[in-house]
Write a structure and sequence with these properties.
Layout lengths: L2 H34 L9 H22 L2 E2 L3 H6 L6 E2 L1 H18 L1 E3 L3 H4 L8 E3 H11 L1
Antiparallel strand pairs: 1-2, 3-4
Length: 141
């Protein structure tokens, strides 16, 4: 192949890759907007967008909540710091969330008392209700 042919092939390939990336990003954006449109009216209002941002944050955060060591910041977290080292180990954090989930199942909701729980409070009202607890349940399985 001569130099001119290689340049043309490289240009065509570049256009193909860029087009694929644009379509992938566009498709991902449409899926995110569909997910954000909670009332399915075809319009994502500011409240729905805020809820979507919280959901995305929670989704990114949730694996960290269970699998990373976390500094103890509250009295409740201290109760679950079994080895009293000032850090919640993954097992300790999981136990905290399991107990909170049990409370939600029996009482209907639970006040957000820790940064770990904040990730599950998708509407930002300071309470984890039964609907929000579904994500908590999934993470505990």
């Amino acid at each position: 192949m001569n130099k001119k042919t290689l340049i043309i092939l490289a240009a065509v390939f570049s256009v193909f890759v860029i087009t694929a990336l644009v379509f992938a990003d566009s498709s991902n954006r449409r899926m995110r907007l569909r997910h954000a449109d909670k009332n399915k009216d075809g319009i994502v209002d500011s409240k729905e967008m805020q809820m979507e941002k919280r959901w995305e944050h929670r989704r990114q955060f949730k694996t960290d909540a269970l699998w990373k060591k976390r500094k103890v910041n509250t009295e409740i977290e201290q109760k679950y710091d079994a080895n009293n080292d000032g850090w919640l180990q993954p097992e300790e954090a999981k136990q905290l969330l399991q107990d909170r989930y049990t409370l939600i199942k029996t009482e209907g909701n639970a006040k957000v008392d820790t940064t770990i729980e904040e990730a599950y409070d998708t509407n930002g009202d300071g309470i984890i209700d039964a609907k929000e607890a579904e994500a908590l349940k999934e993470d505990l399985q």
